[in-house]
Model the fold of this input.
Amino acid sequence: MNRLDSVKSPLLSESVLQNLFSKKIFTVQKFLEEKPDRIASISSLQIKDVITLRESLITQFSAFVKKGVDEFLDLKDNSVELESGIECLDNLLGEVLRTGNIIEICGLTGSGKTQLCLTIGVNNSLRRNIIVHFIDTSLGNFTGDRIENILENKKLTKETIKDAMNRIKITKVRTMDELVSTLHQLKTSLGNQETCCRLIIIDSLSGVYLPMLNEADNDGSCFMNHIASLMRFISKQFHLLFLVVNLATKVFDPEACLEHSDEAPVEPNTPFKDLRPLLGRYWLHVPSTRLLIHRIDDRNLHDTTRTISVLKSSSIPIFSSCSVTIAKEGIVQSETND
Amino acid sequence: MNYHLKAESGVQLLARLNSHQSTAGLEEHLFHSGPEPKETIEIKGGPSTGKTLLLTQFIMKSILPPMFKDIKLNGLNVGVILIETDSHFNILKLVNLMERFILKKSTSKGITIEQEDIENLIKSSLNNLFLLTCHSSPELFVTFHQIPSLLIIHPSVSLILLDSVAAFYQQDVRSGGIRKIDLYCRKLVQVLQKCVNDYNVTTIYTKPSFFQSKSSILEEFSVEPKVGKINRRIELKFHESESNMFVATIQNSNSSTQVMYTINNQGLKWIKMKTSE
Done:
């Protein structure tokens, strides 16, 4: 909330503020909603001054007007199309991995969500020479080891591996609060430096969200809202792509789920109706694209092939999919794929 | 003799003089001849049902000219203000849709147009689109109050779009705002309606399907445009049995219509109509 004070305008003197506060007009929003003549009679300001004040408050606090053509030229010049480096997935996604978007990868446990993120991160660091921020919520040091492992298995020179590793920055995050402050830090640091970061991976958002749900004062949804706003701002402002990992769970009794108010409803008659991404109903609408990575056969735990399906998108038909394999050098296109 | 003077404020006078063109013919499958000026329309739907895409299509129809080099584009040639909170709208998608649309229209007429001409047409049309991106609820409310002055500077604007009303709800509740979703939504739209009430503009906003109170009473639609009321609702849903098929239900004060549609790279494609009372 923007409270009215003398910093916002010299017209808001102590006595004017007192008069406004006595009529419960505390915020800029409330001030603007009142009719100017009423404000004038309350505050003993002249109507002319009230109008000037209104205008100055509007210019200070409203969003910046951007013409469509300027936005188009800005995006054309500054936005970048990233790639996953997995041929069939790139063919499927087309221009989806363009900066300025938030993309979610969801899947059951052990389906290969982290592997997919690491592969995309490594491939972009290698081919695009961009900085990749990897925000890791897991315990242990598996992430760094696996990144090195993927690079070594790609049969590259030591120099290339070192450079690529240097361009991937890993931040460990344990709680939602730490995640929020990490994003705030990124917001400031990305604005200051010239280095070209185009990809931020959060693995995983559900990892810091779930522990919060049992706290007495449950404010999971408020944090999600805050994080979503932050991510939208960062992705647009600095032209970068967010890749967010989310856990999915299997629904055994869809009707029982409807009892919980904040859980995502299950769409009937769709191919994955027994799967449900976590993070609540609010989050469901946040990513512009949602990808599901899943095993073809649940029982065969040694099977390394996976299917990646599109669950939400504005440009690709939903439920279209491609088949990939988890290998030593990360995720690659399945050989049987035609 | 009864002297009856009707006074109008300077703003109303300006609005009348600058009379913003009507948005009639925006999408005949949904509105027939409408929407009427000053109408408020709600678009409601789950994820991936095409809410933002529908808005993108409305923008395309609005900002394109009616004719271009003997090709009938059927555009309305009016300006659009888009207030963005969800940041789902993608201008490249809009440009892409426009390119496909112009090419399709020109090939069906057997006319070839240069790539450069298309680009210039798109760029000049995009001059009619005004984007306001908000990142917090206070910013959004102040932005609403900026719209009247924008409408005076740009008399061509006839359509105000808001995508979506739900973006800041959880944060607002946390900072002591209205908890009841229906009331929150109505209040928010009402502030916007009050700001544009003096002008001949149509307001359309989107709302995710989950965004309603548990004990939601069905709101009545108003016939006349009125602050605090909506005139139409378009509800977008997955088709119950056929895959990749969607249903749009259009409700207003006296009727309810259903239109089926699919989504492809040319946007929403309308299929057939069923009317039910």
